[in-house]
């Protein structure tokens, strides 16, 4: 009998067994074959496990990356200029603001925009959303305008218009009240309609300034204020707000609005930079000063303000072909002045290259009177279109039902540089280096 000692693995250890039979070789070969198959299968399973593990890890990582990308895309605030609009905006920064209002049939954008600006300031200061009365300011401004008009013998503008500083000056002199205390509208009227009151007030002043009695009667002011009371209502001397009693001045103190914190700025070359001058527009009846800075710093002030959490009151020309509240845009496409109507209508369909605005181009438009002090609004944020071009988010005061942006619009940087007449900002919103040049 032939004896063979066989070594084989069993459960991770070596085991010795003697095979003692005439069939020993056959058994040995069979066992060796199965051991070979077992080792190969074990190696295959090990490699398969590694491959599956790697594939699983790759799949998990890929899924996580896709989820993160999807979440980033989903979490971005994407908006359009209108429902089927070709302009797509990604919101970069947005300042909290109060609800859109409607100045309706009144030339009081200067007041609505400044009040909205101050309401955002109150939110920033931690006062919450407070609805300030526009008509308190408008009525008070009429009194101041009338005195100036008569002193100038009628050689100055008297009308519905005004500037940002008018609101600040009235808060300094008379205070402010909430909307719920003083709506400034006759019974049955829910939106401002000032055509008649403006005509009546103007006619009375025009008659008085002719001095039919040889000198101005002291009764003109009583008659004038009587007209204001009839159309706007009497201003309350005291009122209650959230359980506390205030006067207009004490309410302004409660709000902690410091008129000296706010300044107006522009950018023109007919006055020295870093100086102050009286901006030559007809609605600047109060002859208040604005600061003057170069155009690049003008934009830098707005960008810095918004990025630091401050909104901006914006006075601009809205008579341009590239301004369309209906389409939610204010743009300056290249060659728009020479376009025919059909081509002009198409500029709001998708972004086109815009005109490069220089200091000289801006100045020329102001000098030839193609830039007018038309309208006041509030800049509440910064957005970028699908091409990466910067736009300003602008809050208007024409109600919410005249466009698909809920009463807002998007103004391109070229439009801002070209057509802005002035802005108002908080002093702290100005970059330090620029403020130093301005002497602040």
Fold and architecture overview:
The chain has 440 residues and is an alpha+beta fold. The chain has 2 domains: 4-66, no CATH class; 80-438, Cysteine proteinases (Cathepsin B, Chain A), CATH 3.90.70.10. The chain is 40% helix and 18% strand. It has 12 helices and 16 strands. The chain has helices at 24-75, 109-124, 134-151, 164-174, 195-209, 220-232, 248-255, 295-307, 341-345, 359-367, 413-419, 432-438, and strands at residues 4-10, 13-19, 78-80, 88-94, 239-241, 244-246, 262-266, 276-278, 289-292, 312-316, 323-324, 329-330, 375-384, 390-395, 408-412, 420-426. The strands form 3 sheets. Strands 3, 4, 7, 8, 9, 10, 11, 12, 13, 14, 15 and 16 form a 12-stranded mixed beta sheet that branches. It has a two-stranded antiparallel ribbon with strand order 1-2. α3 packs across α4 and α5 runs antiparallel to α6. The N and C termini lie far apart (115 Å).
Q: What's the topology here?
A:
Blueprint: E1 4-10, E2 13-19, H1 24-75, E3 78-80, E4 88-94, H2 109-124, H3 134-151, H4 164-174, H5 195-209, H6 220-232, E5 239-241, E6 244-246, H7 248-255, E7 262-266, E8 276-278, E9 289-292, H8 295-307, E10 312-316, E11 323-324, E12 329-330, H9 341-345, H10 359-367, E13 375-384, E14 390-395, E15 408-412, H11 413-419, E16 420-426, H12 432-438
Parallel strand pairs: 7-9, 12-15
Antiparallel strand pairs: 1-2, 3-4, 4-13, 5-6, 7-16, 8-9, 10-13, 10-16, 11-12, 13-14, 14-15
Structural class: alpha+beta
CATH C-level category of the largest domain:
Alpha Beta
Query: In total, how many beta strands?
Result: 16
CATH superfamily annotation of the largest domain = Cysteine proteinases
Strand residue content: 15-25%
List low-confidence stretches. Answer: 1-22, 59-64, 67-74
- Rounded mean pLDDT is 89
Q: What would you report as the Rg, rounded to the nearest angstrom?
A: 37 Å
Q: What level of helicity do the residues show?
A: 25-40%
Instruction: Please outline the major beta sheet.
Output: 12 strands, mixed
Shape designation? globular
State the separation between the terminal residues, measured CA to CA: 115 Å
The quaternary organization reads as single chain
What is the domain total for the residues? 2
> SSE order, as H and E?
EEHEEHHHHHEEHEEEHEEEHHEEEHEH
Total of DSSP H or I helical runs spanning 4+ residues: 12
CATH topology of the largest domain: Cathepsin B, Chain A
CATH architecture term of the largest domain? Alpha-Beta Complex
